[in-house]
Amino acid sequence: MEPFLMLQAWQLESLLPIFQRQPSGNKILSQLNLHGEGAVLKVSLGGPDVVDGRLLAALRVLLADDPEAVHKHDLNTLMSLDVQVPLGPTVEASALRTVLALCAIALQHFHTKIMDDQAILGGGPPLITQLAVQFRLQKKFTIVDVMQNISRRIKMLSPQKSTG
Predict the structure, then answer these.
(1) The pTM is what?
(2) For residue range 58-77, what is the model confidence (pLDDT) as tens digits?
(3) Which residue did the predictor score with more confidence, 9 or 53?
(4) Closest CA relative to residue 78, chosen from 62, 98, 102, 90
(5) Can you say how many angstroms the Cα of residue 40 is from the centroid of all Cα atoms in its chain?
(6) Which domains are assigned to the chain?
(7) Cα–Cα distance, 130 to 153 (Å, whole number)
(8) Are strands 43-45 and 5-7 parallel, antiparallel or unpaired?
(9) Cα–Cα dist 2/74, whole Å
């Protein structure tokens, strides 16, 4: 299935200098195809993977305090949202909160709010306008769904953080 929404390159480029300060940062970013020649700086949100594994792995590695713990896991593990907190609940919560922040930024870049779009659709616009607004509204709902999914995951981590 195709991703439902792509974050733009500028949203990821702001993270690159932080990675490049870490000794293995460029290597990991290159392995994730987020750095170097031919890098793809767009990541997807929504759909069966909820969050692009490349983004999730990059955030987990960036936020990990222990480089040795990072190297104990392969990239597939670090890219999986299904894996139970490979680098610990604190790193996981921080990575997921960062995804939430990126989602909030993505929502802010729409020039209308969800309620505005619903009002436009309720006014019986021309077909072309209706299709465009429905498409824009679906993108917003996808972001909201991702945010709700990620928020649930963060809440599930809370007991682990206090006992771990």
Answers:
(1) 0.81
(2) 899 888 888 788 888 889 99
(3) 53
(4) 62
(5) 15
(6) 5-163 (3.90.1420.10)
(7) 34
(8) antiparallel
(9) 25
d(CA 114, CA 108): 11
For residue 59 the two structure tokens come to: 């955030």
Percent of the chain whose pLDDT exceeds 70: 80
Structure tokens at 4: 């439902």
When pLDDT is averaged across residues 103-121 and rounded to a whole number, the result is 93
SS (H, E, C) the chain: CCCCEEECHHHHHCCHHHHHCCCCHHHHHHHCCCCCCCCCCCEEECCCCCECHHHHHHHHHHHCCCHHHHHCCCHHHHHCCCCCCCCCHHHHHHHHHHHHHHHHHHHHCCCCCHHHHHHHHHCCCCHHHHHHHHHHHHHHHHHHHHHHHHHHHHHHHHHHHHHC
Q: Which residues contact 33 (CB under 8 A, 6 or more apart)?
A: 39, 40, 54
